[in-house]
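INTERNAL TRANSFER SHEET
From: sequence group
To: structure group
Subject: Transmembrane protein

Please process the attached sequence and return the structure record in the designated field. Keep the field labels unchanged so the import script can parse them.
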Amino acid sequence: MEALYLLVRLVAPLLAAVMVAVLILAGGRRRAKRLPPVPLLPEHCLSPHPAAQRRFRRLLRRKPQLRTQARPAEMPRRWGIAAGVLGVLASIGTSLAMPGGAHFQVAVERMVGYPATVIELQVTASAQANLMQAWQPLLQPAAREVVMRYPLPRNNHPMVDSAVQPVLVSQHGDRLQVATAVPVDHSSLRQALAECAGIAPSALRLHDAARFTPTWQWGWAPLAE
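Return from structure group:
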């Protein structure tokens, strides 16, 4: 995970700069297509020297069609300057917005999946808030701290970043689901939660998920502290 984070930290700013520059240059090319064509030759010789003017007149006598030929207009130079400046700003902004290594790992785990225990209970929606408040001390230890150490350029000391993979809660009508950040013992947790809620242990359904992916499942939110 550390190698992946360092790779993303390196590539993401470059990719952002390229994408911004490409989009701006594409807009500049579309703008240039709407401009009138530019004549291949000016109406008069631009050089003040008589010899150059004679050669210019001689060329037009030999090839009079050059007076009417034109080429497509070029993209205005300011579009290229804007692409370079905004590309650099996009790269800097992406670097500043990059999360720390541990926060990056938490986000990736939510997308690709991590082992968890899912608790399900049928309870009225009006009672779910009070129930979660009562369960909070029992469920909070099932969160998982994530720590990542990684080197930074031009820095002799490694960067240490920490984050928490929290316990997640999903509420859909009378269906309440809780997902721990680590697999837990079913029997002990079921008994503790049932006693706290004053319900039969059989009302709680627990199962382990080898790859729990809350990012792709609607409705999951961190357990309130």
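Handover comment: The two ends are 28 Å apart (CA to CA). The chain has two domains: 2-97, 101-222.
Transfer complete.
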